[in-house]
Amino acid sequence: MTMNYILQQLVNGLALGSIYALLAIGLTMVYGILRLINFAHGDLMMLGAYVSSIFISATVVPILFAVMIPTLLMAVMGLIVERTAYKPLRGAPEVAMLITSLGVSRLIQNSTVLALSPQPRAFSLPGDLTKTMNVGGIRFTQLDVLTFALVIVLMVLLTLYINRSKTGMAMRASSENLQAARLIGINVNWAIGAAFVLGSALAGTAGFLWASRYGIIDPFMGFLPGVKAFVAAVIGGIGSIRGAVVGGVLLGVAEIGFVGFLPPEFSGYRDAFVFTLLLIVLLVRPNGLFGASEVERA
Amino acid sequence: MLEIRNLFVAYGKIVAVSKLSLTVNEGEIVTVVGSNGAGKTTTLRTVSGMLKPQSGEISFKGRSIVGLSPEAIVTRGISHSPEGRMVFGRLTITENLKLGAYNRKDAAGVKIDMERMFEMFPVLEQRKSQRAGTLSGGEQQMLAIARSLMSRPTLLLLDEPSLGLAPLLVEQIFDVVVELRNEGATILLVEQNANEALRISDRAYVLETGTVTVEGPSIELINNPQLRAAYLGLD
Quick check: keyword Transmembrane helix in the entry (chain A) (predicted)? Predict the structure, then answer.
């Protein structure tokens, strides 16, 4: 096994991990405030991929549109899902929201099947994005570079927004203590809406990146990445944005490492590996890497 | 200023407050004392819009506030410093204070009030960029009070501000309450530390199983031997 091979796997792992990180941010923000595991999050990524595919196949428009339009549309979609499916359940037991999110997930998947087709479609990027560059024996595509750049820029923007803006401050307060936030006059519906808008926008971006990486899209493609991204958020410490990013990247690298360094017959177990990893992390650090303990939360 | 008439609040089938009537006039400190589960906190939470009453009327400055959202009630001028302090431990002290003024539009006024809070509670200024979770219990209580003052309330609801604090800090907190009143604030104070609370308040209500059993000027309640033994646990 050469050094190059190891570095190559690292690049692949980072690329996958940054997509998990994008998805995990939305999940962790929503969980932080509502204690909701939003199973429909990955399905927004799928919708984003489909929207993106419209612009990919239309060769006349710049590739930028294939990233931006799904990002913006999913932001709107996330808000619609929140207001129609979850908002009526405020104050209901958490399990009611959980089951609803499974229902929303199924609704989105099956509506897509009905409206389009259950058949997978090709998602082929323009040639120059997939062209490989060779830097010191490690192969990059322009897509890899675009992925890293996009993820880094989005994370810096999001962190600034969460840390500096008034809404960001309200979101952090709501995530820490929803009751106290309401008492001091924060409109928590606004904070919750913001979490959905921001998180779903990132899921839309992730839709473009995921589809570009695998070259194929189908109506059920979002569910497993969504669940894995939740695993990433839990590993990082649910409720923490920094944790979601670190958890996502770690999970991506670990998953690719599992596939890349073990004999090929193991690669079918990659999903099992991801969930085993979750169990181990939860045993060793129940609050995840950057998680607030319940004591601090209370 | 605040008028509660015949309030009835239940959690499902469990009645927490029934036929409760209570008045707070401008410039007063009014204390509500009573044992655990007597309905003190429930009453405050209903006033601040966190709970909806089954029946009864709550009016503030002559207008009904029943059914309004907590944020609307804050905007009308009622601020609630909750039991257990509930500061945002992962946010800085400055951020906690800024959030207290969340619904205010006058940035300049907010800044002035922030300075005022730092004057009133110097320990908060020294540690203003630290996370609130690093403060001691007494300091967190001061932050909780300062945070609720940041909305510039005309009525302050204080729920158990002395809970879990060392006697010296309890003194400090009550001093702050008196100081606030001297500056013209109106305060509805809920306390288990009845002796102290009665000493600094103008009038008081004794709550028992969700309803008012005794009311009157605090001085009379302190000196009523029957009451001291029966309700206040003093002798």
Answer: yes
